[in-house]
Amino acid sequence: MACLFISNDLFSSSQFASAIRQGGIDVTAALAIPAQVAAEMSVVVLDLETPGAVESIPVLKSGGQKLIAFGPHVKIGLLEEAQQGGADFVLTRGQATRDLGPLVARLLPPQPPGTNR
Asked: What is the rounded distance in angstroms from the CA atom of residue 15 to the CA atom of residue 113?
């Protein structure tokens, strides 16, 4: 199982994807909202400052994926829209910096012994 990380910010994409990979998790990064999410993506991480982010939440969850959205703590309305839109977890950017890797690892289904994520 794997994680899809969506952000149009190249710097944060690299930083956050690296934090997730440290847990041995396969991460695919996207700079824009995809039309659909591949079935092997169990978790989607969404930077709410990516154009069309909040509106895309239903599509990103349509395959049963868990969705973690994050954005700046000063954009309270944006964070609330993501929560109301159906995101499973909504974090501030600071919380994501600290907690994103362990949260993604916790949300992935258990793997059979002897396999990598």
From this structure: 29
Q: Spell out the domain ranges in the chain.
A: 2-107
Stated as kind and residue range, the H or E segment containing 96 is: helix 93-107
Write down the mean pLDDT value for the chain.
Answer: 89
Tokens of 83: 């929560």
Per-residue pLDDT reduced to its tens digit, 64-100: 999 999 999 999 999 999 999 999 999 999 999 899 9
How far is residue 72's CA from residue 61's CA, in Å, rounded to a whole number? 22
CATH class of 2-107: alpha beta
User: At residue 77, what is the residue type?
Assistant: G
Nearest C-alpha neighbor of 23 from the set 111, 104, 80, 115: 104
Q: Are strands 89-92 and 41-47 parallel, antiparallel or unpaired?
A: unpaired
DSSP one-letter string for 52-94: THHHHHHHHTTTS-EEEEEE-TT-HHHHHHHHHHT-SEEEEHH
CB 86 within 8 A of CB 67: yes
Residue with tokens 């199982």: 1
